[in-house]
From TrEMBL:
This is dCMP deaminase family protein. The active site is at 77 (proton donor). GO terms for cellular component: cytoplasm. Belongs to the cytidine and deoxycytidylate deaminase family. Residues 5-141 form the CMP/dCMP-type deaminase domain. Keywords: Hydrolase, Metal-binding, Zinc. It comes from Litoribacter ruber. GO terms for biological process: pyrimidine nucleotide metabolic process. Zn(2+) binds at residues 75, 103, 106. Its cofactor is Zn(2+).
Length: 160
């Protein structure tokens, strides 16, 4: 039996983590790794102790900010980074696997934290109807390796 690549394992885990999201618009998962070890995981949603959009606001979701995004939610990559730092794990030189390419704000955090590589499954620009992935352009400009995950993954019960 052939053993799966770690890239496959980590991206499949990110897809499965996306299923934990309580967002009614988009499910996103993230896995932060160093070499073959998982440092942290995350998925998009509001901070602990606030609310779960799909439970409290099942028809419309939570309120939107001026850009039309959820006013409370943290992005999957933010949650993964915050959890790692909260638990004193170093993220410098790590690789981030994420189901949706980072937005510009997340890209700034990724770069600032010293994350060396981002592997993404889907384009943020395509999802948002933008002409380019500003987050990916930012990361590339400042030397963070960016790679699109090209293999097929089976999706069930997830808004990806």
């Amino acid at each position: 039996m052939a053993k799966p690549d770690f890239d496959d394992i980590f991206m499949e885990l990110a897809v499965n983590l996306a299923k934990r999201s309580h967002c009614i618009k988009k499910h996103v998962g993230a896995v932060l790794t160093k070499e073959t070890r998982i440092i942290s995981i995350g998925y998009n949603g509001p901070p602990p102790g606030t609310h779960n959009c799909d439970e409290e606001f099942p028809e419309h979701g939570c309120s939107r900010d001026s850009k039309g995004s959820c006013s409370l939610a943290l992005h999957a990559e933010q949650n993964a980074i915050l959890y790692a730092v909260k638990n004193n794990a170093s993220v410098e030189g790590s690789t981030l696997y994420v189901t949706l390419a980072p937005c510009l704000a997340c890209a700034r955090i990724i770069f600032s934290m010293g994350i060396a590589k981002v592997v993404f499954l889907f384009s943020y620009a395509e999802y948002k109807g933008l002409k380019e992935d500003e987050g990916l352009a930012f990361l590339r400009k400042f030397g963070v390796e960016v790679e699109k995950y090209e293999k097929e993954i089976e999706f069930q019960d997830v808004l990806i």
